Amino acid sequence: MIYDFIILGAGVTGITLLKAMRRKGVERVMALEAEAEPGGLCRSFRVGGHIVDIGGHFFQTKFPEVEDFLFSSFPREKMYRIDPRISKIRIEGMDVDYPLESNLWQLPVDKQIDYLLSVIRNGESLGRPEPVNYEEWIRWKLGDRICDGYLIPYNIKLWGIQPREMDVDWLYKIPRIEVKEVLRYSLERHQDVEKYPCHNRPYYPLSGGYGKVMEVLAREELPNILLNTPVKSLSYDKAAREWLVNGEYKTRNVITTIPWPSLYRYLGSPEEIRGKMEFIRYNKVVISLFETAENSNNYHWRYRPEMEQQHHRELFISNFVKDSKKYGVFTETNADRFDASRLTFPGKNLFNYTTPAAYPLPLLGRTKAITSILEHYKEKHLFGIGRWGEHQHHNHDVCIKHALDFVAKL
User: Fold this and answer.
1) 36-39: long-range contacts at Cβ-Cβ below 8 A with a sequence spacing of 24 or more?
2) Residue 242: helix, strand or coil by DSSP?
3) How far apart are the C-alpha atoms of 157 and 300, rounded to whole Å?
4) In 276-407, where do the E strands start and end?
5) Partner residues linked to 290 by β-bridges
6) Which CATH architecture has domain 102-188?
7) What is the pLDDT of residues 316-366, one digit of tens each?
8) Max CA-CA distance within the chain?
């Protein structure tokens, strides 16, 4: 049998592609998944009564078709709205609401003055040209105090690379506050949460963690997903215009939702894209579960830019996972920083999980490189969709959107 499509990976993008294709009448389609269950980075674990998501996943989207798609399988009434979302930043020994530049009024007056003067004197206000790397851009936009106290150390901890190595084409994911707004929020002592780029009032499942959403989405597609089946090889027959996957499965089209560095090896490390692959890298994150004696706050999560703290984010799961045991917290730590012998979060460490891949690194030159790679393979009917197929830091609603758009054009 020759498949019309083989999808590599059954995370949120792969599941969406599979479901949308079958709804459109594409029958000869199959997904290969390396893990024992589908869901990818949107899975959840239950450990000692606590529910742990692989990362913090919440659902909110500006795309009506994405909302319709998700709620057509996972009923809206099985979710609740987190309103308001409470996210904090640990800065100057205090917990300040996110984003920092909108909430400088929560700092002591002398600190406010220092930060506000730094913002007002930023490079943009002084008419300097807009930079092209992340470190210079955030200094240009927000001034040195916010950068040195928060954004530079936090991003070093998260990404594992220097901010000057990073591009600026992913900054749509963070708030874009103007100087006038920073001053207004400080004087009026409030922020406009509608300025959040995402997740100001997100949905979350009533039970089972976010992995429950993936479980339900994938349920009808399981007959078309080969679990415990990692990709091992791909070869293209130019004459027949067919792909052979793992030396066993023939298909006219391949869609990858797995990281390109792995796919590059499975393709036999082709020389024609070798130079471009230097820009295609990702990091790994360790998810650590802790059980604490109490929980003295109502936060959903908190960012930790202090370099003496191993982890960069804390998620207070018992504050938003309704069927999780009390006083559970999980942290996220760049795998290169993680040392189990010196964990810096208080409490009993119950569980550590390292993601195979967490975030595509937004390196300078990354977008040009992946665009060229995708164009090169498009003529061979190998397509990349989603966070890993496109090697972009997409939230899962964007992954769903791009998968739906791809199928709509078939």
Assistant:
1) 36/227, 36/228, 37/215, 37/227, 38/10, 38/11, 38/14, 38/214, 38/218, 38/221, 38/222, 38/225, 38/227, 39/10, 39/11, 39/12, 39/15, 39/211, 39/214, 39/215, 39/218
2) strand
3) 20
4) 282-283, 285-291, 301-303, 313-315, 328-334, 348-354, 359-360, 382-384
5) 329, 349
6) Orthogonal Bundle (1.10)
7) 999 999 999 999 999 999 999 999 999 999 999 999 999 999 999 999 999
8) 72
> Rounded distance, CA 74 to CA 141, Å?
41
Token representation of residue 226: 């080969």
Q: Which tokens hold the place of 329?
A: 């917290």
Q: Helix, strand or coil for residue 254?
A: strand
> H or E element: which one contains 386?
helix 386-389
Cα gap 151→139, rounded to integer Å: 10
What residue has token string 């018992």?
Answer: 318
The token pair at 400 is 């769903």
236 three-class SS: strand
Q: What is the pLDDT of residues 212-257, one digit of tens each?
A: 999 999 999 999 999 999 999 999 999 999 999 999 999 999 999 9
State the CATH class of domain 2-41+65-73+210-281+360-408. Answer: alpha beta
Q: Domain residues of the chain, as ranges?
A: 2-41+65-73+210-281+360-408, 102-188, 285-354
- If one counts every other C-beta atom within 10 angstroms of the C-beta of residue 378, the result is 11
- CA gap 176, 99 in Å, rounded: 10
Using DSSP's 3-state secondary structure scheme, residue 247 falls into coil
| Interval 367-389 mean pLDDT | 97
